[in-house]
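[09:14] KT: can someone run the structure on this one? pasting the chain below
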Amino acid sequence: MAEGPGQLGNGRVARVDGAGPRLLRPAARCHEERGARIRALVLVIAASCALLPLLAIPSAAQSTASALFTSAALAAAGGDASAPAVTAASGSGGGGAKVIPTAYVDGGGYGPPVELNPSVMILGEFDWVPYQSKPPFTSRCTDMVDRSKRNAGGSRINFVPTHYWRDRNQDGGVDAYCYMDSDMDCITHTAASIASFRAGMELCFRRAVEEGLGISIVPHLDDGGKTAAWRNGLLFDPKKKYNGFSYQQVMLDPIADALAAALAAKPSWVGPIPVWFALQGEMSATVIHHPNEYKALLSEMRQKLFRGMAAAGASEELVSVTRRLTQVGVSFNFNKVMQINTGGGAGGGSEASVLARFRGFGPFTTAINSLRGLRAVVTGVADGAVAAVGGGGGVDGGAGARRRLLAPQVDVGALKSLFEAIDFLGISAYAALDAADFPSSVRGVGSGGKALQNAAFTFFGEMKAELGIDVPAILARRKIDLHYSEFGLGGGASMGSWDVLGIYPESTTPAGSYRDPAVVAAVKRHNDAIVAATTAAAALAAARGASMPTTLLPFSDSGGK
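[09:31] RB: done, structure tokens below
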């Protein structure tokens, strides 16, 4: 397969058999509405030899359900799990060839299969605080881990811990960090709340470790005020203290400490646990304008994790293995990389107002309520809109006295240095898939590819056009992973759902659950087949005296059951 504009790297994507592109449907029945269908599609963005399966939604509207892709390449696959064959689109855009995604021979040219993994959203203290006052402890978060394992199968879970920021003077910046309580009040962080968050995350991570699940972490900040501004344009220094605490102190340090303790407590019967730790998720402005700080955090979080494991009693061998299996990186939005929130209006985004939907029911009230629907919805918020500034003001009144944040100059050299230091790059892949033939038409980049490439190539194109950074070249040369850290999954009858896998407890509407049984069945069947195939491939490699990358080995003895 020749290298072309739709590929990265050396072109060793997969051993091919046959010819001709084709689309495959999941074995489960797909809901249809206005031509929206859940399908499986292949695309190849190869930095090294790997495949990334996912389900595509050819619809202009997407749900905001999140999942994780971890691979050195991006691709999509699907179909009947009992006969997993997919089509790989060539970089030149012409034709394709059938690939067997479950085959792997070390150094032989096959790409390893990759799962479609669920996300556990931790939206406030109600999600991390234990139910019980004494051991054994469980929580809504540990319940979500169990639900993820049951509903989606697979060997990895994506954790999305979420805190909030206050913008008291409405200039678009951070004045303090806060967390949500059950009354939907954003409470300013204190040392006690940070300690509670750390303890709750340790409990949740321990549950994942007990199941032998790989751990991905993509932290979020959401607007704790009334404007629902989008996190992508939030400009802040991760090391600077705002009202007493920095982002590092309220988010990254407690996560690293919690993860270290959980990994150190790994049961002896559980194999090595791979870790993918993003310093932030879908927050571009902070990284673009503070690359030196994020580069420093890369090494600081690695050392904090490994030293924490040793301090918690982990053996030198376990720490050494975990060091090899841990990746620390950054995660951007797929577009608007140069956006900066300016205050004085309402913004929006893929997750900007998730919590607002829950006001008045479930754990988000002191009164007793039944789960009969979402009684509060943020209105007038445009998806992806940049916060407006003007004489008429924003949602809270006049904006004449509000000042705009002056965007500092970007240190492109420092940003390039950051890209040379990360272990992986993530993007939120919410590019619309709105055409039946899945065209690629993104700023002249990746022409002739498939629509699932749009998110990656939109990001690549903006980074090149706005900052002169050739991200694909860096990924290819360094052979590091490109993740679709978040994406929309659904379509048809699930068009309004943000949680088609039914992981979050309050994923409901007056008409019923947001959980889509057809999607759940398709995802679980796919992931179970991947785990089984990877296990078989590892056994075959061992019998032949070869080896597989450790991160591709099964992480529990469940065998995909």
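[09:33] KT: thanks! The chain has a mean pLDDT of 70.
[09:34] RB: yep, looked fine to me
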